[in-house]
Amino acid sequence: MQKATPYWAAGKFVLLLIGALIMIYPLLWMLSSSLKPDTMIFKELGLWPSQITLDNYFKGWEGTSGFTFATFFKNSFIVVGLSIIGNLISCSLAAYAFARLDFSFKKLLFALMFGSIMLPHDVVLIPQYILFNKLEWVNTFLPLIVPKFFATQAFFIFLMVQFIRGIPKGLDEAARVDGCGHIQIFSRIIFPLMLPAIVTTAIFTFIWTWNDFFSQFIYLSNPKLWTVTLALRGFLDATGDSMWGAMFAMSILSLIPIFIFFIAFQKLLIEGIATTGIK
Amino acid sequence: MQAEALERESALLNVKKESAGRRLWNKNKVALLFLTPWLIGLIVLSLIPMIASMYLSFTHYDMFNMPKWTGFDNYINLLTSDLRFTQSLKVTLKYVFIGVPLQLIMAFGLAVVLNRGVRGLSGFRAIYYVPSLLGPSLAIAILWKQLFGMDGIINEFLSIFGIAPNSWVADPSTSLYTLIILLAWQFGSPMVIFLAGLKQIPTDLYESASIDGAGRFTKLFKITIPMLTPIIFFNLVMQLINAFQAFTPAYIIGGQTGGPLDSTLFYNLYLYIKAFTEFQMGYASAMAWILLAVIAAFTGLLFLLAKKWVHYES
């Protein structure tokens, strides 16, 4: 390979740095704006606030439609937490069957599972809404959580199947010789060994559910049940262009959980995307 | 009880011969135990809703009265007389076919540059990746509306170069491009996939090319790109499917109606308006199937063309 000259390397480094700055400038600007008094936000292009205040955070936290952001965060965490549990249980069970068991119509069922990953949600949206409406689940968390317990996010099945296939089969056979059935092999050997896939699933379920707007929006109209995302929209509707500082402050708070997850699990996250190609 | 369960399960698996029932049950009972949650989900939340949606697409249905069979009326109206539908299709196609290539070119370019080795690789990778993590959230859509608004920092930045301020989100000729920029901004995740792919290319390919006197560009076009075509293809298909279904940014930036002048009326936004504000559930179902057909046509076309340009190692 050709050796790069030091000048070229330094130039490349600087260009990448400028690119990185442009990429995160909007985020930094929002952070800095959230710390400025309302009247200053659109006066300064620079990032460093000439006057720092937490007023926007206090004002924003008061929330909208009679509930504070404490309620909205609690709701978001309930929906996200239960979605993670649902996905982990249902997807790992199905993944074990596809990766380790032999059964009738396996190829067909696998194809159906794989196909459902690419299926646009629109073609099931309306009948699902009608069904949940008939069950009187609209304005409860159930339409957002229950499907996760039935492995509707088949993408994670696929991810786990790929992972389980990499676990040596000798381990299963040794356990079988010791008298373990499939349930024990699954719960004592495979599940603990697929921890990276479990964590990846948990992270992406967290991020997707946290960021989700559309399904929360159609199923939750009662402000008491609003998640952080819905509350931001409610806030935007209620205040219009008048309270950008508070708006930005709550937007920043809404991004913090994802950001913490990113920092904590960066390595697994990037490996997860790299090996499976998820968003 | 058990016999009953057996029958149910057998029916589930489409068993025709009763005589072989016992053997089939023994072969499948364990798998069934593991697959039941997923199978219920597949049947109750995917397959039956798909059939129902197909049926509804041929009816007039408002959620309060029984569906009324109208044959192909919904489809005919959509394709021949609904100007907003045509507009939404146009907007979405433009978004997909400008936004996705732009996003992938940026992802590819940066992956190649980063892969050549640079100090602080993991730091750069992280910073470039963050927007694709946060990008789909509503908070970012709100931020975008501000950035490209009249008072936004984009105008302040452009004024340095003497470009007159404009409310880019309120101008129908530019509003869609702010959404396309938002999509391109999220190039981090395909970039990470490209980076992983680049690491898989054997270095001896480059070494022998160097011996043959190949330059940087020859190597890029004769080795890197051909070797990465499966990943380019994969990214293209996935991002295409995602982009066709975009909703949140258009909803927020287009002020809930796809404005100004329907310039950001995404397909899914129009479908939402039809289904959940006008309660034309049948009409919206027909829209869902047309979208499926459009996505299937384009991915099908990609798969067909893939034979010509995607290079798989034998």
Task: Write a concise keyword list for the protein shown above.
heterodimer, A: 279 residues, mainly alpha, 13 helices, 71% helix, B: 314 residues, MetI-like fold, two-stranded antiparallel sheet, 73% helix, globular
Topology:
The complex is a heterodimer of chains A (279) and B (314).
Chain A: H1 6-34, H2 55-61, H3 69-100, H4 106-118, H5 122-134, H6 142-145, H7 155-165, H8 169-177, H9 182-193, H10 195-211, H11 214-219, H12 228-239, H13 244-276
Helix pairs in contact in A: 1-13, 2-13, 3-7, 3-10, 3-12, 8-9, 10-13, 12-13
Chain B: H1 2-12, H2 21-56, E1 59-60, E2 68-69, H3 73-80, H4 83-115, H5 121-134, H6 138-147, H7 153-160, H8 175-185, H9 188-200, H10 203-211, H11 216-244, H12 248-253, H13 267-277, H14 281-309
Antiparallel strand pairs in B: 1-2
Helix pairs in contact in B: 2-14, 4-8, 4-9, 4-11, 4-13, 5-9, 9-11, 11-14, 13-14
User: Could you give the order of the helices and strands of chain B?
Assistant: HHEEHHHHHHHHHHHH
* Principal-axis shape of chain A: globular
Number of domains of chain B: 2
Number of helices of chain B: 14
Radius of gyration of chain A: 23 Å
Query: Which fold name corresponds to the CATH topology of chain A?
Result: MetI-like fold
Q: State the CATH topology of the largest domain in chain B.
A: MetI-like fold
The most extensive interface, with participating residues per chain, is:
A-B, 87 and 97 residues
Give a count of the beta strands of chain A, DSSP E runs of length 2 or more: 0
Strand content of chain A: under 5%
Tell me what the structure shows:
The complex is a heterodimer of chains A (279) and B (314). With 279 residues, chain A is mostly helical. Chain A has one domain: MetI-like (MetI-like fold, Orthogonal Bundle), CATH 1.10.3720.10. Chain A is built from 13 helices and no strands. In chain A, α1 crosses α13. Chain A starts with 5 loop residues before the first helix and ends with a helix. The model of chain A has no long low-confidence stretch (mean pLDDT 89). Chain B starts with a helix and ends in a 5-residue tail after the last helix. Chain B has 2 domains: 55 residues, no CATH class; 234 residues, MetI-like (MetI-like fold, Orthogonal Bundle), CATH 1.10.3720.10. Chain B has a two-stranded antiparallel ribbon. Chain B is globular, with a radius of gyration of 25 Å. Chain B contains 14 helices and 2 strands; from the N terminus they run ααββαααααααααααα. In chain B, β1 and β2 form a beta hairpin. Chain B is mainly alpha-helical. The model of chain B has no long low-confidence stretch (mean pLDDT 89). Helix content of chain B is 73%, strand content 1%.
